[in-house]
Amino acid sequence: FTRTGSAEGVPLQNEKQQNAMEITKKMFWTEAMKGGSIIGLVTASLQLVRLSFAAPRSWIEWVSILVFALLLYGFTRRMAGRASARDGFPYNRCMGFVMAMMLFTGVIMGVATALMYNFLVRDAVVMSIDTIMGEMRGLLTQDQFDTTYDSLYRAMFNPLLLVVAGVITYLVQGGLIGLFTSAVAQRKPEPFAPAGEDEPKRDGDAA
């Protein structure tokens, strides 16, 4: 009896495993880009509404946080549902996916904020700067006041600074909210699941 295909089978299997890993990474970042971009666009729209109302502590902020958390959970759970039952999509991978989405959300929000501040709500931003600096007038000398005002004014309308600030802000915000949404959206690995089983099985599901 002669064994055929053994020498070729091992390299072929390894190549398939490598390709599968590449596809997984590609899907991970593609889905992170889609989810992060959608979250960014929705959040930017709500921010525009808030700025239009000129109410820093208005109800729209609470709506924004709620929508942000729901979108974060929804996209994370959707990604977890695509993982195989054996591999699962545990808590640490959910958090990694959240942070990946936040990179794109931060960029989208930074660009959107720069556009809004420079073209749509410039007068409102200037009024906010004047209000903030008016409260500090008694604490600074005239030279310090002028220097601080000019620095703040330039920073508020600088696109690059706004993008960097957006990325940092949403990495922190998304990371904090993701601590809770990832705990709910995670899919624990099932080492003894059949090889072809891809449907998620969550706690409380009927057997």
Q: Tell me the β content.
A: under 5%
**Given the structure, what is the number of helices?**
6
Taken from the alpha-carbon principal axes, the silhouette is elongated
Helix-strand pattern, N to C? Answer: HHHHHH
Radius of gyration: 24 Å
Structural class category: mainly alpha
Stretches where pLDDT falls below 50 for ≥5 residues? 1-23, 199-207
**Which assembly state applies to the chains in this document?**
single chain
* End-to-end Cα distance: 45 Å
Helicity, in percent? over 70%
Q: How many E-type strands? A: 0
The biggest sheet amounts to: none
Mean pLDDT: 82
Description:
The chain is mainly alpha-helical. The chain contains six helices and no strands. It has helices at 6-53, 59-82, 91-120, 122-136, 142-156, 159-185. The model is unreliable at 1-23 and 199-207 (pLDDT under 50).
Short description:
The protein is mainly alpha-helical. It contains six helices and no strands.
List keywords for this structure.
elongated; disordered N terminus; disordered C terminus; mainly alpha; 207 residues; 6 helices
Write the layout of secondary structure elements.
Blueprint: H1 6-53, H2 59-82, H3 91-120, H4 122-136, H5 142-156, H6 159-185
Helix pairs in contact: 1-2, 1-3, 2-6, 3-4, 3-6, 4-5
